[in-house]
Amino acid sequence: MISLTPKDALPEDGTAGTLVGRVWLPQAGGPAVVAVRADGVFDVTARFPTVSALCEESDPAAALRATRGARIGDFEAILANTPPDGRDKARPHLLAPVDLQVLKAAGVTFAISMLERVIEERARGNPSSADAIRKEVVRLVGDDLSKLKPGSEQAMKLKQVLIDQNAWSQYLEVGIGPDAEVFTKAPTLSSVGSGMDAGLHPKSTWNNPEPEVVLIVSAAGKIVGAALGNDVNLRDFEGRSALLLSKAKDNNASCAIGPLLRLFDQTFSLDDVRKMDVGLTVTGADGFVLEGHSSISKISRDPTDLVAQTIGRVHQYPDGFALFLGTMFAPVKDRDARGEGFTHKRDDIVTIAAPQLGKLVNRMRNSDECEPWTFGVGALMKNLAERKVL
Q1: Which residues form a coiled coil (predicted)?
Q2: Which CATH number fits the domain that encloses residue 64?
Q3: What are the DSSP calls for 129-161, one per residue?
Q4: DSSP β-bridge partners for residue 289
Q5: Distance, CA of 201 to CA of 232 (rounded, Å)
Q6: What does the alpha-carbon distance between residue 50 and residue 358 come to, in Å, rounded to a whole number?
Q7: Does 355 lie in the same domain as 287?
């Protein structure tokens, strides 16, 4: 069972920044948009019915600071009531801090993750083949492509060399080619928050967490803040075929975002995101511990480029979107058999952390064991209308 305190969720500077969350209110039968402040958690739903609506303000952080709201409790108590095993359903609990935003993800944005995708493809989803293939791919491509600008003349020359050696891959195409891979991670409103169970497809036997920064973007394409995310990945499914991407990525509870959304203000900016290191710890009931990190400074495409490739005249998002930036984390530490690398086991605790965003903590379960997702867009609109906040 997960046990959480504010120290496990808040940024290192506490509530100094502008922090937004969503809380389930049992008495209202639905979610509240909340501001998390030093003196408590405040319901601002009467002013901002959705987080999406708040993010459409010209200055979301200033708009939230100007709205007092109604105090609904201490952050500590709400956070502690969030894990499903010990939850009191009559009391509020934390949700993922996004709602109507479309859940998008960028893939193959770091050199090392690009190489791992090539390895998955060649291993056809079989982890026992991965180690030998990894050595061969690194021999052909190298293991430091961080200075290679995607779409550049240098990148295109490398592409031709690899084609000539019969070593080209669709993952290299989106890794060093001009066009980024951006896909829809999960349905709107389906993400789980910190303290909740995250899901793995029950048929998967080779999978891993993906610690990432998630940008929150308005309908106009303006980046307004960031949170942490786990873009849970099934290496066996996607390795068998890239056409299985939806099954590899979109399963019940397979999209975790949280613990809170930090809006850009005088304490936090996009430049802070560009320099951010995201840490990962996986702790197993079997005593296994895996640690890793992802440094946004090593990303191959700037966050503004990824946003520009997601939204524009050819593709609009009227309620905005949340964009996972990708990860450089490559889980190659053996857990069981030598050479087979890492895969999750039931009840693994995954902690994704960054000093300015706090900690996103989830327990891993099969997707069919996680809480069913039943509260969709229709239910949200009906609930907000009944509460007379729309």
Answers
A1: none
A2: 3.90.850.10
A3: GHHHHHHHHHHHH-S--TTPPTTSHHHHHHHHH
A4: 283
A5: 10
A6: 22
A7: yes
pLDDT for 144: 58
- Does 250 map to a domain? yes
Task: Answer yes or no: do 156 and 94 share one domain.
Answer: no
Calculate ∠ Cα 57-61-63, nearest 5°: 55
How many angstroms separate the first and last alpha carbons of the chain? Answer: 37
pLDDT for the residue 166: 65
DSSP-derived letter for residue 189 is T
Domain limits for position 20: 6-107+181-387
Structure token pair of residue 60: 């979301």
Whether the link from the prior residue into 83 is cis, omega within 30° of 0, is no
Alpha-carbon distance 279 to 169, whole Å?
Answer: 29
Q: At residue 47, does pLDDT exceed 80? A: yes
Overall domain count for the chain: 2
Give CA–CA dist 150/114, Å, rounded: 12
User: In 3D, which of 166, 148, 146 has the Cα closest to residue 157?
Assistant: 148
**Interatomic CA distance for residues 368 and 320, integer angstroms:** 29
Determine phi and psi for 52, rounding to 5 degrees: -55, -45
Beta strands 321-324 and 102-107 are parallel
Residue 206: band (very low, low, confident or very high) from pLDDT cuts 50, 70, 90: confident
pLDDT at 300: 82
Tell me the C-alpha distance between 24 and 291, whole Å: 32
Strands 70-73 and 321-324: unpaired
In a domain, 69, yes or no: yes
Does position 123 have pLDDT exceeding 90, yes or no?
no
- Report residue 351 as tokens: 């902690």
Structure-block tokens of residue 32: 């509240």
Handedness of CA 11, 38, 24, 266 (dihedral sign): negative
What is the chain's length? 390
226 DSSP β-pair partners: 215, 262
Query: What gap in Å lies between CA 300 and CA 297, rounded to an integer?
Result: 9
Same domain assignment for residues 257 and 164: no
Cα–Cα distance, 113 to 366 (Å, whole number): 24
Given a cut of 70, whether residue 69 has pLDDT beyond it is yes
For residue 115, what pLDDT is reported? Answer: 64
* Cα four-point dihedral sign 342, 344, 350, 353: positive
In a domain, 1, yes or no: no
